[in-house]
């Protein structure tokens, strides 16, 4: 009878240890999952911040590029206009020189 009580007591203690182990493992798993989720959220926020910065830089660079392209196009247009004016002045000068030559002959 004493032996049976001792066996029951040991079995009861073993069962209690198993239950405590399961509860501890479940609690640890919940804490670990919460930590993983918090870490993931922190990384996601950091990534979004970095991406926002990269997007801003890319937009600014694209705006600067478009501005430079517009300036170059304006400069090329002005250069073509000046070239046309120079050609007109050359033609006019040649006519005047020819007219002077004709008058002098």
Q: What does this 3D model show about the protein?
A:
The protein has one helix and no strands. The protein has 105 residues and is mainly α. 98% of the residues lie in helices and 0% in strands. The longest helix is centred in the middle third of the chain and has 103 residues, at 2-104. The chain is rod-shaped, with a radius of gyration of 45 Å.
- The oligomeric status of these chains comes to single chain
Q: Which runs of at least 5 residues are low in confidence (pLDDT < 50)?
A: none
Topology as H/E string?
H
* Cα Rg: 45 Å
Percent strand = under 5%
Please work out how many helical segments DSSP would assign.
1
CA-to-CA gap between the ends? 152 Å
For the biggest sheet, the summary is: none
Counted beta strands: 0
- Fraction of residues in H or I helices: over 70%
Mean pLDDT: 94
User: In terms of structural class, how would the helical and strand content be classed?
Assistant: mainly alpha
Which overall shape is indicated by the principal axes computed on the Cα atoms? rod-shaped
